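User: My instructor asked us to take a sequence, write out its structure as tokens, and then describe one feature of it. I'm not sure where to start. Here is the sequence I was given:
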Amino acid sequence: MSTLPDLVFFAVLLVFAGALAGLLAGLLGIGGGAVLVPVFYQVFGYVGIDPAVIMHLAVGTSTAIIVPTSIRSFTAHRRRGAVDMDLLKGWILAVPLGAVLATAVASHASSEMLRLIFALIALMLAARMIFLSNRLHLGDDLPGEPARFAVGAVFGVISGLMGIGGGVLNNTFMTLYRRPIHQAVATSSGVGVLISIPALIGYVAAGWGEKGLPPLSTGFVNWIAFALIIPVAMVVTPMGARLAHAMSRRQLEFGFSAFLVVVSARFFWSLYG
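Assistant: Let's start with the prediction itself. The structure tokens for your sequence are:
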């Protein structure tokens, strides 16, 4: 991807990817990482990027995009007083520690391993939303230490490996303990900040000097994708949000679950098809 036509084709594909990611993120009420990683995987593959680094690049670039979006979301939610700041303060070490550990694992993992991890976790999340939504509760309040620290660290590891902001995981965790979904969503924006900043640094370091990366990449982060996705997604996301308000919560859960199943199937096919 060294010629001008190649770069233009790459940019056009990313604009369409940003529109798709923004629409789905707005429709499904997620930060976009679970959408962006599989979309990046497809786009990077279309333009001939080395398969050995495609998944790493998809996860790292998705993580970079989560940084500004999660900070903006957290600021807005905090002004409304909806964030559980006590939970975030308890996770201020655990979540970043898990995210940094994830980047260390990713630096030694193959593209195939990262795809398998993403596919398996996506299937588990889909199964939870389809079969256990609003029907499973583990208690009336969040667990104390050291269980809470362990949960934060695990969320950091899983989110860092998948290139997501942890919203799906934290929403599930808090609602399992009967916290209101609006508080869970608001707090998840802060979790995204705790995950994305250290994970971004980790993916830049892990991919430093790696061969086969596209132009304007710093480690496993491609700044062309970053610059094009952010504005397009911000324009399109409200359209998806308006569509979401015309649907029931259960319809949205089934829609997101179906999306995760399709993504898992795509990754499994790439591994074993």
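For the description part of your assignment, you could build on this observation: The mean pLDDT is 83. Try explaining in your own words what that tells you about the chain.
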